[in-house]
Each structure stands twice: as C-alpha cells, then as structure tokens.
Design a protein that fits this description.
Blueprint (H helix, E strand, L loop, with lengths): L5 E6 L5 H13 L3 E6 L9 H8 L3 E2 L13 H7 L2 E7 L1 H9 L5 H8 L4 E5 L3 H5 L1 H12 L3 E2 L3 E4 L5 E5 L3 H15 L6 E6 L4 E2 L5 E2 L6 H12 L3 E6 L10 E4 L3 H12 L4 E4 L6 E3 L18 E3 L3 H6 L7 E8 L3 H11 L4 E6 L11 E2 L1 E4 L4 E4 L3 E2 H16 L1
Parallel strand pairs: 1-2, 1-4, 2-3, 4-5, 5-6, 9-12, 9-14, 12-13, 14-17, 17-18
Antiparallel strand pairs: 7-8, 10-11, 15-16, 18-20, 19-22, 20-21
The structure holds ligand PMT.
The site of ligand PMT has 28 residues, from helix 9, helix 11 and strand 17.
Amino acid sequence: MLSDKKILVAVCGSIAAFKTAFFIRLLKKSGAEVKVIMTESASDFITPLTLATLSKNPVYADFFDKKTGKWTSHVELGLWADIMVIAPASANTLAKMATGTCDNLLLATYLSARCPVMVAPAMDLDMFSHPSTQHNLKIIQSFGNILIEPEEGELASGLEGKGRMAEPESLLLHLEDFFKKKTSFKGKKVLITSGPTQEPIDPIRFIGNHSTGKMGKAIAESFVRKGATVHFVTGPVSVFPSNTNIYKVKSAREMLNKVESLYDQCDIVIFTAAVADYRPKNSFTEKKKRDGDNLSVELVENPDIAVTIGQKKTEGKLHVGFALETHNGLDFAKMKLKNKKFDLIILNQTSDDGAGFGHDTNKVTILDKDNIVLESELKSKELIAEDILDQIQMISK
Ligand code: PMT
C-alpha cells in the first residue's frame, strides 16, 4: 500500500518515541522510503542509531555538523517527502508549530514543507487537556495539518487518561487511509460555483452579498488534493484556488452561461455560490446622479442556476448544494434539496457565530435525501471541505 511513498518521520522528546521505532519498521515493511528528523530532546528517549538502522537512512537532527560544516537542507527534506508525520508531537513542538517558531531543524522543515503534515500528540492527560494545548491543536488543524488523536489509557506518569500516542498500527492505518483518499477523486471532473454575483444598477453600483469565496476555494483545493480536475466558476472575489481552471463572471446570468457550457463534461457539481436571486430590471448605462428625488429600482428574478442545471441532470451526475439560512434552517434546506435535485445539501446558518459568509471557519449540517448525515462543530473551512468530500465519496460508492 505504501510502496514508493516517501515518509518523513519527525520525532519529538516524549517517552512515546519508543513506539516510533515500531512505526518506522511497519513503514519499511509496507514498502515506504523513510527519513527521520529528531529534536535534541528526542534523542534522550531513543537513539539516532536505532532510528537510522530501522529507517535505513541517516537521521537528521542539526542544521549543520560543527566539525565538518556539512549542512542539512530543511527545504530539500520538505520537498522530498510525500507526507511528514510528527510522531510523537510534544506539547512544546505543537505550541511552536502554532506560532511559527523555528528554532530547530524539525520546525524549519515543518515550515518549509509543501507536503501534508500529520501530527500524533503524546503527553500527559493534563497537558493534553490544557486549554493552551487544545487551542494550539485547533490552530494547527486550521492550517490543514491532520491530527491523529491520542488514545486513552495508562500514561507514563502512572495516571490514566487521554494522551497516549496512537499505536504504530493505528498510525499506519491513518497513513494508508490518507493515501487512499488522495486518489479518491482521480479522473473525476468537478464543477464548482463560488463567491457572490453582482447585479448592476449602473456602471458603478450593484446588488451583491457578502460571500468571499473562501468556502468554494477550500472545497476546490480539497478536490485537487484528491486527484480531481476542477472547473471553478467564481463571482468577483479576491481569493482563488490553486491548480484549478478558473472562470471569472459577475452576474448570475453570466454564471449560468458558464456553468451550462461546462456541465456536460463534469461528473460532480458543487453549488457553493451565493447567487443574487434578483437583479434590477433595467440598469442605467451611465452613473445615476442624485436629482433630489427618491429612486425606485424594480427587481426581477434571476434564473436559479441549480434548478436550471438540475433539469438537465442525468444518471451518474452528482449535485451538491448549499443553503445559508437565518431561520428554520433544516426545513428550508430539506425543501431546497428536493426542489433543486441535490444529492446532498450543506446547511450553514447565520445564527452560528463564526459560520457562513466571510469567516475562515464554518459550522454545517449535511443532509442527504433521507437524513442528517453530519453535524459539524465550528472549524476551519478547509476541514469542513474535507467533511463534505468524505460525504460525497460515501454517496458515490
Ligand atoms: O464565500 P464565503 O464567504 O466563504 O461564504 C460561504 C457561503 C456562506 C456563501 C456558502 O457556504 C453558502 O452557503 N452558499 C450558498 C448561499 C446561498 O445563497 O444559498 P441559497 O439558500 O440562496 O441557495 C441555495 C442553493 O441554490 C445554493 O447552492 C446556491 O448556490 C444555489 N442557487 C441559489 C440561487 C440561484 N439563483 N442560483 C443558485 O444556483
């Protein structure tokens, strides 16, 4: 399963470092290439020689060798790896990762690595449950790092509780799962609408909304990481996903035209955009000047992109919608799921602090045709995107 995968194992100072030896052995057995970085305190718990012997590679601990001047490139290590696994991750290293501190080779590599990073914390139960550790873990996850929760049980201190590093077999399963997911949308073409639309009143003013495109961007990037080709149709925003085909539009009608032109070639459509339901019936061709009188702007209904595209839906296509609601969220979401022929709908509600428009975080309820399938906590839009893709994968099986 892991043959040809390049795994960078990073070891911090914790008694759980002895388990890392077994973990490295399992990695080698499953065909992975392994390199190891250690912090200075990690070598108080396990010797570099042990880990070098098991990984069949030299162990990296210092930026350079004081005697020879030979230096280790943290950038190269970060570029080499398909994934970096920090196991055990101590409370100290987690805090430094959360703040961008860079005072050893492990942290410099972490900051420069372009690959995904998994962290497997190990510490005493009170250290783990301390608000500062929990806060740091939230921050680290908001950067997209993957947390492997510690397990409950007897700890080195003799106390019982949550803090034991996940067992080597469990770390291996997480890795296998990660690489499986990485290709879970390989070959799929995904069409995503994102951001607001703007409906002109005159060449200067428009009717719009507060959507920033952050949620759409997170979903697009998650699909790209899992091997899909993404067509991203976006209203006016200032954030764009990497490695996608981007189509910039302004109004709902422009968005609909672009979506219609791309629809046939796509397998999955995600309607993240906050599309204006109304537009001015007539827009002024020149800037409307004040004339001492009130101005009435007559609004007409815009096409509903999801409904229009839903009418063309054929066997095998998957449509996923969003609902942003101020009240009666579940009822409206269920109604939209049915009327717009969605297979899944993601409900976010303005009553939840930190959710919906503009925030870096979101809190959602995901529904399929029959049930609520997931109620998330408040977390980064990147992690919400992962949840959404997991659900899409489940219903596409
Ligand atoms: O962009 P962010 O700042 O990160 O914020 C993300 C978000 C809050 C915009 C996003 O998570 C979200 O909820 N998007 C849908 C918002 C919305 O306007 O929902 P709605 O209830 O009006 O529409 C329901 C569904 O129909 C949506 O999938 C929408 O894209 C689609 N729709 C709506 C109207 C329309 N004319 N055409 C459509 O396709």
